[in-house]
Design a protein that fits this description.
By secondary structure, this protein is of the alpha/beta class. It has eleven helices and twelve strands. The longest helix is centred in the N-terminal third of the chain and has 22 residues. The relative contact order is 0.14.
Length: 306
Amino acid sequence: MSSGKNHRFGGGWTAQKLEVLAGYLQSYTTALKDQPTPTRPFRKAFIDAFAGTGYCNLFRDKDKSDSLQSHLFPDLTEKEPQELLSGSAKLALQTDPSFDRYIFIERNSARCADLEELKVEFPALADRINIRQGDANEFIQELCGKTKDWSSRRAVLFLDPYGMQVEWKTIEAIASTKAIDLWLLFPLGIGVNRLLTKSGDIPESWRRRLDLLLGTEDWYEDLYSVVKSKDLFGEVHETRVKKKMETIGRYFNDRLKQVFAGVIETPGILRNSVNNPLYLLCFAVGNERGKSIALRIAEHLLKELR
């Protein structure tokens, strides 16, 4: 993939997710600022796990460097040129009131170098920006695990993978802090639904990927139904039938409810140009005391994506 401001993301659905994120970050920092003065003010962080360049080029074009992506995720490679706009990293830096710390995680070294340019563009925030090159799952699990005291810390974490890179262990680590609000793109139509084959015969490598994402090996029994039928000779045959995408999405959202203090009941739906669902835009709250206002804000922002 190319680096810099030519880094390519999705189309109209990309603008939608960023608009929701920007709205939440603004409300989040304002809400914490307007709280009665506490004895220990919260330290607020924004964490972007797949930060890219900080810019987003709304131009979907075929990337010949990744044949698997082109095969499994054609929606990310269809041509749809649109305008250049700020990506999630830059949107966070533009939020006022500001965060106390910004953590941008990116595996690609060239895009990490591009992220460094944000320190020049936002000199007043440069000392708050921490850019980490590496695997997002490993870094987040380490960060959440090694920070023992979250009582005076709060964060918003944006998990926006290209496909199915997020692991359930990472989601559990985030929830365990009881201090992080999570925005997560769940690859419903763009990944999971395609790996769940119609016949129910799923390659072992695809099963492992689904195990990592869903955090269990029991998903097969929940996402497929068994239909029994008799043939002309009276013999009973069993056929596996994949459940609807709505059920698959609800299954994942219910998994989030098992580990977070609060979860938006109906996630937003990000669709491609022909109205097919690509992602669910899920929201989960880590802190019990702050969940009511957080869920109310997120619900308002997501109502146009139902």
